[in-house]
Amino acid sequence: PDNFHEGLAAVKLNKSYGFINKQGEIVIPFNFEEAGFFSEGLAAVKKPNGSWGYINKQGEVVIPYKYKYAPNFYRGTTWVTDYREWVGEIDKTGKLISPFRDPFAKN
Question: What's the Cα-to-Cα distance from 30 to each of 20, 22, 85, rounded to whole Å?
Fold first, then answer.
């Protein structure tokens, strides 16, 4: 793959994603249904149950699998979606910094 971010790339093998380094070595096992790229030390990953969470470069869960969608971090935060389809902003510890709200509700 040519999509290395922070030294690692998400790759798919037999319907599961894991991460390799630039030497082609498996760094994080193929345990995920989907995977984003590393950004600010974390990557969004989706477990087979359909929930998204975040792992660090050692493959440890940093932010639990509880989101319907979870994009990459930018400048220390990201917007995540819960199962009501509401959107909230979290920091890299998983702390909610902007409460979940209906993105289609009129203010």
Answer: 10, 16, 28
